[in-house]
Structures are given as C-alpha cells and as structure tokens.
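A quick word before the example. In earlier lectures we treated sequence and structure as two separate objects. From today on, think of them as two lines of the same record. Here is PtsGHI operon antiterminator written that way.
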Amino acid sequence: MSNIQVFKVLNNNVIIANHPQFQEVVVIGKGIGFNCKVGDDLPLASVEKMFILTNEHEQEQYKQLVPQVAEHLIEIVNEGILYIKEHSKVPLNEHIHIALTDHISFAIKRYDQGIVLQNPFIFETKEMYPEEYAMAEYVVELIRKGFNVDLEEDEIGFVALHIHSALTDQHVNEVKKQSQLVAYLVELVEKSMDYNIPRDSLDYSRFITHLRFALERVRSGKIEKEISSLDKLLYKEFPELYSLAWKMTKIMEQKLLKPVYPSEVSYLTVHLQRLYEKKTDADDKNNA
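And the structure line, produced from the sequence above:
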C-alpha cells in the first residue's frame, strides 16, 4: 500500500489520515487538505516535503492546537520547519510543530495587544546556539512578512531555543533529574492554586515547555540582575502569583545549586496567570 487515506480534514494545511505503517497520523503540509474529502486516497509521494506526526501524544496536542490558531500560521510555520529540517544535521523532534506554532501564535497576540516580553538571554542564546539562531532569524522573517508584525530580536532568541530543543537530546540522567524537578514544581503550583492541570491539555504542555527552558537557562550560569518595568507591573497586578513564581525560582536555585535570573519570576508569573485563568473558567463551568 503506497497511499494514505483521508480520515478528517482539519483545514487546508492539516489532515488526519490512515497510514499503511503508522495507522492514524496527522499530516501537515501546504494545501494538503484543499479539496480533500473523507475517504480520499493520497499517494505517499505527495507528502514527501510535508510532515507526518506519528507519536499519539503529539497528534492529540496538535489536534487541540489547530483550531486555536490562524490557518495561515500553520502554513508559514510549516515552511519554517521545512527550512530547519533542510539545514539540520539531526532529526527534528515532532514536538516542534506544537511548541513553535503555539509560541508564535502567542507572540503575535502579544504584539497585537502591545505587550513586549524582553529576552534577557538574547546574547547568551546567540553565543551558545549560533546555527539555531540563524534558523530562527529566517522563521521570524517569514512571520513578519506573512502577518505584517514587527517582531523584535527578543523573539528570535525565543524561537532559537525551541529549535535547539527539537534538535538536541540530553543525557538520560540529566533528563531524569530535570523531569523530577519539573514534576515537583508542577505539584507545587497545583497545590497552591488548588487546580489539577489536565495532563493531556495544551496548557500543561506549554507550562512544561517553559519550565524546561527555564532550567536550561539556569544551567547557563549567568545572572540578569536588572528588574524591568514588567516585573513591577506583574508584582502589582498579581501579587500572589508573583510570590509563587518567586518561590519556584528559589527551589530551582536549591535543587540546581545555581543562581536564577530575577527575570524568570516575571516569565513564570505570565504562565501562572494563564493557568489561573483556565482554573477560573473550569470553576465557573462546574458551578454553572
């Protein structure tokens, strides 16, 4: 069998299909779903320059993400990931489709709202990951042209970290230690908020991704001492969440035996606020 059979069309650029080897898969590619109908057969050769998500967990998260983002964004991010793949020496982790699409969608929303997150690690990122940074420049330029948004250099640094994450694998012992610390931090947040974050949700994936990047930044060993106006604003608007974020950074310091950037408190507070909004929505539904 050399065909995949269309099971569901999510949009013009994403379909769910039955694959001869991997069974149900998510297939991503420019225009792949255009004029497709359930039951149509597509030659595998036609997805040669597209991506097939075979991991079941990644499939489910991507299905959740697609309805939340602009269809044009899927097309542009796909083009960017193809560029990364063509300029990389190692395979890409499938999760980049979720992480990069979600991050860029959130960055565009922040841009529209006039919110700018400064990246205090931009110089370290350029120094440590020059190849990933160059790829990130290409991807951000695609976004600038495709959505007419003037994303700053800070975003290039963030995208570079996503690319680095998809291209590298840590030693199993380091991964285990990191996983244990992340699990401990998640448990702390859930107890503090009295909210169990659904493990199969996009929110959980976002939070875990942020914690993973935060720990990676801590291991760089450099400290950003400046407290920006964003820190002061978040402390004033969300004092309890800011306090929780501060406590989390102290735990990171104790477990990793390394200092933590003060700016990490702000980044954590932003993510905690998103989780708190989800908790509030869930409580409202349960009480309705």
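Notice the following. The first helix runs from residue 56 to 65. We will return to this example when we discuss secondary structure assignment.
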